[in-house]
Design goal:
single chain; binds zinc ion; about 5% helix; Metal Binding Protein, Guanine Nucleotide Exchange Factor, Chain A; 7-stranded mixed beta sheet; 1 helix
Length: about 160
């Protein structure tokens, strides 16, 4: 067997479990995650109530809602960009974008599983709060890297 961990590791590192604050919404996601991003855009700040959100993408078929579909609400924060959250406790779960219908953009703060991937970039730093100081080597961008005028204004 080529993977020496197979069989003796009870947790598959690529299987991620997540839930909302009240526990009514639960999901599983199969990694690896892509575009692991720390976003300081105003929309992520407002929705999370935090300085930034950490978001990542995965294909639709790697995301499975286990519980709580009836609790989910969405808010179209920009045209074609729906932020989906728990209507009972307010936790941000994911975003769906009409421009990328095959992917979900997961809000990693709701993960119950830890994961070993690194933050790849930091974006929309032009919208950061002054208290957000960076002392790491994560590449930072004022908006999106290589932004075009048609790109979304949030993550
Ligand atoms: Zn909830
Ligand atoms: Zn954002």
């Amino acid at each position: 067997m080529s993977d020496s961990r197979a069989g003796d590791d009870p947790v598959d590192a690529k299987l991620l479990m997540g839930s909302c604050l009240c526990g009514g919404v639960r999901y599983r996601a199969e990694g690896p995650l892509t575009l692991v991003t720390r976003c300081h855009c105003l929309q992520c700040r407002k929705q999370s109530g935090a300085e930034f959100a950490t978001n990542a993408s995965l294909e639709n078929d790697r995301f499975e809602l286990l519980e709580g579909e009836a609790l989910l609400r969405d808010f179209e924060s920009s045209p074609g960009e729906k932020r989906i959250f728990c209507g009972q406790c307010g936790s941000s779960i994911l975003k769906r974008s009409a421009a990328s219908p095959d992917f979900v953009r997961l809000r990693l703060g709701c993960l119950d599983s830890d994961f070993d991937q690194k933050i790849q970039i930091r974006i929309f730093t032009e919208s950061r709060l002054a208290i957000s100081e960076f002392s790491d080597d994560i590449p930072s961008f004022e908006t999106l890297p290589g932004a075009a005028s048609s790109d979304p204004k949030s993550d």
